[in-house]
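Dear Dr. V.,

Thank you for agreeing to look over these. As mentioned in my earlier message, I'm a first-year student in the group and I'm still getting used to reading structure tokens, so any feedback on how I've presented them would be very welcome. I ran two proteins. I've put each sequence directly above its structure. The first is here:
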Amino acid sequence: MPIKATEWAAGIDLYANNNSTTEQGLIKWGTGVAVEIPRGFVGLLVPRSSICKTSLMMKNGVGIIDSDYRGELFIQFRYTDFGDLGNAIQYSKGDRIAQLVILPCPHLELVESSILTETLRGEGGFGSTDESRVISSVERPDWY
């Protein structure tokens, strides 16, 4: 049964139940758990911080569980240490392998538009909010 490790933990710990290895060498762990996420919420499958002690990484980083999904929760991992797979640290049945975090997810109506509101960042992409970004005195906010 999934548990919250502490009263104020954000995530619900999920345990390794059974696994299989794919042709690409990925490990897919079943949790033996199916959930019913309430409408207006989303479940996020995220790695536990202790994953850094293993030679594994969640394949997709974060899994999204929609409120209309009713199947078992699976977590897929890939090895990060390809040099010595025979000695790679991995999970065993019964280990905590991931967390389920449930967050509000408002129902949004999508509207097509050719005009977007302007912001200071604008179309700035990766690293555009870094301090090294040049901001002219005209667009520099008072607090800068």
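The second protein is here, in the same arrangement:
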Amino acid sequence: MAHRVLIRSGPRVERVEAASLDEALELIEQRGRALAGGPRRAAVELRYKTFEPVQQVAHRIELRGRGVSGGVDVRGDGSVEAWTGRLRRRVVPQEPGETAYAALRRTLGA
């Protein structure tokens, strides 16, 4: 069964196929760590509201496969948050000492 990983960075979308769930999750972690180490975003000020870097999704890495959907959001400040679902995204709570990637792996059962 093939799994598709979508990497969204602004308007650019890259699609990568992975042969297994473990391979897809490894790809997500590798790309997420590379993107999180990149440049930080500045706060966006609108007329009545300011969006801090932690409130901005700079990059989204999404996993789609038969029976699984989830991914990670790399925030503007470099922090990473795991989620599951497709239409309704639910944040995956991290256990003490656990990374967002490990929490996603634990939740998806890999």
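From my reading of the second output: Residues 74 and 80 are 5 Å apart (CA to CA). DSSP finds two helices and eight strands in the chain. Does that match how you would interpret it?

Kind regards,
E.
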